[in-house]
Amino acid sequence: MGSRIKQVRRLRLVSALSGVVLAGVAVAPAHAETVRDQQWYLDAMRAEQMWKTSTGKGVEVAVVDSGVDPDFPDLRGQVLSGKNYSRHPGDEHSDYDGHGTDMAVLIAGTGAKGSTTGSYGLAPGAKILPIRVPDFIERSRANGDGNPDDYPTYISKAIRYAADSDAHVINISLGSEEHSKKLDAAVAYALSKNKLIFAAVGNTGSGTNKLEYPAATPGVVGVGAIGKDLKKTKESQYGPQVDLVAPGASMIHTCNGKTGLCESHGTSDASAIASASAALIWSKHPDWTNNQVLRVMLSTASGPISGKERTDDIGYGAVRPRIALTDPGDPGPADEYPLPDYQKGASTATDGAAAKPSTSATAPAQVYSDDEASALLWILAGAGVVVLVGASGGALALRSRKRRREATTAWPQVPPGQPHTTAWTPPGHPGQQPGQGQPWPHHQDTNHTGRP
C-alpha cells in the first residue's frame, strides 16, 4: 500500500512589492535590504566568521532530490555531474520542480547572482553532486514518474551511488512512511564507505507525526527544524528519530520562482543546513572519518536547556559548526558510530540494521517552559556553555568553556560572488555578540499552503 512521499519543506515566493499576494499567500513587504541581509540563520551561526576557517572547500555533498540546475546563478561552478533515476525529461541537471536546486543553494550558494540579489549557502566552497530520483510526489498527476511503493528502492539506489562516489555527505530532504531492508542495507553500505547521511524528519509534527524514512533509518542523522526563537517549529516532527536540529524557518534564498526570491520553511531546509555544517567541519579536518565528524557535531551541539541528554523534540541539540571548527575537542574513535541507534555490526546485505524505535502522535514535550528565555543554541556559545558527548558517543554533559576573543580580521572573499560586508548587530544592545543580552526575537510559526 502506497503512502505519501514528501519533500519536507514549504515554499513561498517573496516579492519586492509591498502588499502583493502570490498564490493566496501574503508576501514580505518592500525592503531595501540585500538578500544576504535577510538570511538570519547565517548571522545566527556566524557564517562569515566560520568562512575565515572553512568554506567547505574540497567536500562534495550529494543532494538526493529533484535534480539541481547548474546554471542557477548562485550555483554556477558548484554542481558536478551526477546520476539520474527519473524518467522526467532531461537528466540530473534538469530540476523538475525546483526543490533540489533550493536545497543546493542553502548548502553551497555563492552569492554570485550579485551583491544585492545573491544568496549564500552555509558552505559556499562545497561542491554539489546531484542525484535525481523519480517524482513520487506528483504520481497522481500526469507528470509523476514514480510509484510510491518503489520509494525505498530508488532512495537505496541513490544512497549506494553516492556511497561509491567522491561525495562525503549525503543530503536527503525527502521522506516517506515506506521502508525496506534494502534501505537499511544501503545506509549500512554508505557508512562503511565513510559517508554521512542527513535526512529531514518530516513536517507533520502538529498532525500525524508518523515516522518517515530514511530519517528514521538507523545510521541516518535525522534532522528537525528550529525557528528564530530557537524552539522546535510546530511542523517539525518529534520522536527518537530526531538526532539534531538546525534552522528551518523563514529561510530566505534565491530560487527559480517568478520573483527569483523565496522564503521556505521545513525540515528539508534544516537537513540542508546540517549537511552544510558537516561539509565545513570535514573541509577543516579532511583526515577525520564520518564517525569523527558526526561525533564532533554532537559534542558541540547545544543540548536541551533542561540539561537532559536529549529530547524527542530537538534530539541532542542544534548544530553549531562554529564551535566545531574552533574548539572541536577529541573526535574519538575513527571506527565507532557515535549514535546508539545503529549497531556497529549491522549487515551491509539484506538483513540491514535494526529499526529505530517507533514514535507516536502524542503531543510533544516542551523544550522550554513558557517562562524560560529562549536562550539555547547559539546563545549558549556566548554564555560559555557547551554540550559534550563522550568519545564513545555516550551521555551528554555540560561544561564551561573559556570565552575566546572574536577575531576582527576582514571576511574572506567567497568566489565567485561578493562577500557580505555589512556589520550585523544582534538583538540586545549595540556591540553585543550573539548570546549576550536579549535572546532571539520570538518567531510566529505560520503554516503556509502548499506541499508538506
From TrEMBL:
Pfam families per UniProt: Peptidase_S8
Subcellular location: Cell membrane
Keyword check for Signal: yes
Matching InterPro entries: Peptidase_S8/S53_dom (IPR000209), Peptidase_S8/S53_dom_sf (IPR036852), Peptidase_S8_Asp-AS (IPR023827), Peptidase_S8_subtilisin-like (IPR050131), Peptidase_S8_subtilisin-rel (IPR015500), T7SS_pept_S8A_mycosin (IPR023834)
Annotated active site: D65 (charge relay system), H99 (charge relay system), S268 (charge relay system)
Annotated signal peptide: 1-32
Topology within the bilayer: Single-pass membrane protein
Location of the region described as Disordered in the Swiss-Prot/TrEMBL record: 322-366, 406-452
Family to which the UniProt record says this protein belongs: Belongs to the peptidase S8 family.
Protein name in UniProt: Type VII secretion-associated serine protease mycosin
Organism: Streptomyces sp. NBC_00119
Lineage of producing organism: Bacteria, Bacillati, Actinomycetota, Actinomycetes, Kitasatosporales
Gene: mycP
